[in-house]
C-alpha cells in the first residue's frame, strides 16, 4: 500500500524472523525525518491531480478546502502508523500489521493486491503522467500519452532487468528539482501572471461533480505518509509526532500554494480542462519554452518515481513467490546484480496490460486511479482497524509512541478511509470494477485453494 515511488518490502525469511526483536537505532533527528517525509510524499501526482480535483468541485475555495482536509486526514493516518511501526517494527510494514491483527488470509490478499493492483497500478499511473507531459513536447498521434506510457514501462523494466538502478543520491537530487519546480510554479502563478476574472473560477454545477472523488485525488497526491511513518522507529519517540506534524504541514502548505497559483492564473474551469496543468501555466507565462522546461521536469520526476516503484515492487513480488509456493516462479533471484528477473517480467507485463486500458478511456491517469483507489483504501482501512485490534489483543506490548486523542484520531482515520472507499466505488468508472474483480479473484484463490495459506510463511509472531 504505497504511493508512486515508495514501497514496504515483504521480507519474511527465517533470518529476519529471528531479528524482529531488534529495534532500529534511534539516530534520526527531527529535521532528517521531516526532509525524508517531504521527499517521499511530494511526487509527480501534484502536477496532474489538481485538474481532476478542480473538475469535481464547484468553487475555488471548496477546492482549496479539500486540500486542507487532505492534509488533516494524512496527519491522522500518519500518527496511527507511527504507533504501529514503533510498537511492531518489521520490514513487512502493512503486511506484518495485517498478519498480526487478522491472520494469513488478509495478509495474503494484501500481497496479492500489491502485485496485481496497487503497485502495478502505480507504475501505470506514473507512466501516464510521463505520457501526458511528453505529449506536450511532441505529440505522436491521438493516443500519444498511451504510447509514451507503454514505452516508459518497457524501457524502465529492461533497465532494471539489467541491474541498472537509480541511486538514492540521484533520487534526492531529482526530488530537490521537483520541489524547486513547484516553487517556480507558485511564484509565476501568484506574482507574474495576471489573475483570471472571478466569474471564470466556477465550474458548472451538476453531473460529474463529486466532493468524495475530489478527496480520492487529493489523498492520492498525499500518498506516501504511510511509508514515511516507518522511519519513526529510528528516532526518539518524543520527537516522532513533531516530525510528522511539521512534515505534513509543510507538504500541505506547498500543495495549497500550488493550487492557489493554478487557480489564480488559470481559473477553476481552466484547471479542470487541462491534462498538463503545469505546462499550461508556464506556457501562459513564457510560451513554448516554459512548456518544454516544465514538461521535462515533470517527465523526469514521473520516470524517477516509476523506476523506484518498479524496483521495489519486483522485490515484494519476489517475497510473495518465495513465501507462497503457488507463486514460486517469482521467487527466484537470478544473480546478485540482476535481481528477481521473473518478478520484474510479471510486474512489467501486468503494468503493460493496465497501460492498455488507456486505449479505451479518455484519461489513462484517471482510469488508473479508478483501478487502484478502492483496493488501496480497503487495505488502508484494515491497517487503521488493526490499531484497535492490537491495542486490545496486545495491551502490554511496548508502545514508544501512542496516537494522541485515542480513540478519536484513529476513528477519524478509519471513518475517512471508509468514506473514501465508498467514494472510490460510487463515483469512479469501470476501472474500479476491474480492480475490485482482481482482488476478489485473489479471495477466491484463498477460498478454494487453502493450501496456499497453509504453506505460506508465518510471520505473525
Structural commentary:
By secondary structure, this protein is mostly helical. 69% of the residues lie in helices and 0% in strands. The protein contains 18 helices and no strands. It has helices at 14-18, 30-41, 49-54, 60-87, 94-102, 104-137, 144-161, 168-192, 211-221, 225-228, 240-272, 277-286, 288-323, 341-356, 364-393, 408-426, 430-448, 451-455. α5 (94-102) packs across α15, α6 packs across α7 and α8 packs across α11. The longest helix is centred in the middle third of the chain and has 36 residues, at 288-323. The chain is globular and about 60 Å long. Residues 4-24 and 200-209 have low confidence and may be disordered.
List keywords for this structure.
0% strand; single chain; 461 residues; 18 helices; mainly alpha
How is the topology of this model organized?
Elements: H1 14-18, H2 30-41, H3 49-54, H4 60-87, H5 94-102, H6 104-137, H7 144-161, H8 168-192, H9 211-221, H10 225-228, H11 240-272, H12 277-286, H13 288-323, H14 341-356, H15 364-393, H16 408-426, H17 430-448, H18 451-455
